[in-house]
């Protein structure tokens, strides 16, 4: 398995927000720029009939910022990329330059000879993604000991043309300090020797876009944050480097209300926005389901025209008790009224009218222990026979074990419940402890199953576990 080394840290490795380039430089024994020359097999072993090979990436050193290496020297770097959170290198990237932060070579398991090891959670990356780091590394000698605030800004969004992040104006305000800046071609800026203290950063982002969030690397290393009134808050410590990564998104939405045939707001109705612009390679339809006020909002959409599909999955449920239809109240796709959005251009205050609701039935009953006493706070499940037309549903029993389903008429299926005998409620229950011993290591016990014909309401259902009663905590 080969993993391209890039600028993104990997969540599966448990990486914290990245530390600053200043701190990464300080903790690394070796900081270099190197070029991938090729690969060398450093180990092979047989396990049965399977052959396993370990490769090293052969790197030629181009520049040394730290460590006892020499320009032109070759080093061997472990080519990992597996579950050990090491970096791997692609064989089609020979000639690629990298910035590496690492320590000296070391012995890795049973592999002969020491190898350099590059962690996925470090700031090591392909050279084209390291422009901000290089600005620091190339100047640190003459500016060491001074404060530094640096930042990058990136635009994100699928199936759309992203705006340039070059030459964006920035206002930086701090204690007795105000400076106007511009980003470079990589969306990067930095300021040296600013007074320590609290600062605000205000980007003049491209028209039709907005700041979606930012993260700060500093001594405290907070995570993802939302801006307040588009202002980014950072703090500079004496002799320290603070780094902020800012992200922007397209500013638009399709929003409105869904009303019942009587004009009442409907909760839980799902509205999908199908992109009519034929350049999308996405299989996902962005959607939102209405709140208590019947409101929906679908934001950050690629520019273009959209067809709104109400209950686009076609599943009939208590919140969507109708067939799929199209905005504003069309039964057929071709009769839908398109809505259009662009950067900074939205379609708001739309009103979707549901013309007809399917009849509903009420199914209610009680969940009990084996002796008939109520089983509270447990999930009862309805599984429809026709899963393509009707939605599965779950409800929780009340303190008396009662449950109620509101289902579309025609939704035939089965009711059942499942309990976990390792729940906290049974920790001190002697009878359940005995049951665990004879339950073949399984955690679940099941109630009886009751069939629902889906044609009429019922209120006489009893679901029961073959499970002894226990008071909570006893």
How is this structure best described in words?
This protein has about 475 residues and is mainly β. The protein has four domains: about 10-130, OB fold (Dihydrolipoamide Acetyltransferase, E2P), CATH 2.40.50; about 145-250, Immunoglobulin-like, CATH 2.60.40.10; about 255-355, Carboxypeptidase-like, regulatory domain (Immunoglobulin-like), CATH 2.60.40; about 360-465, Sandwich (Immunoglobulin-like), CATH 2.60.40.1120. It contains three helices and 30 strands. The protein has helices spanning about 20-25, 130-145, 430-435; strands at about 30-45, 50-65, 75-80, 95-100, 125, 150-155, 170-175, 175-180, 190, 195-205, 210-215, 225, 230-235, 240-250, 255-260, 270-275, 285-290, 295-300, 305-310, 325, 340, 345-355, 360-370, 380-385, 395, 400-410, 415-420, 445, 450, 460-465. Strands 3-2-1-4-5 form a five-stranded antiparallel sheet, with no helix packed on it. A five-stranded mixed sheet has the order 9-6-14-11-12, with helices on one face. It is extended and about 85 Å long. It starts with 20 loop residues before the first helix and ends in a 10-residue tail after the last strand. The model is unreliable at about 1-10 (pLDDT under 50).
Short account of what is shown:
The chain has 474 residues and is mainly beta. It is built from 3 helices and 30 strands. It has 4 domains: 11-129, Beta Barrel (OB fold (Dihydrolipoamide Acetyltransferase, E2P)); 145-250, Immunoglobulin-like (Sandwich), CATH 2.60.40; 253-353, Immunoglobulin-like; 360-464, Carboxypeptidase-like, regulatory domain (Immunoglobulin-like, Sandwich).
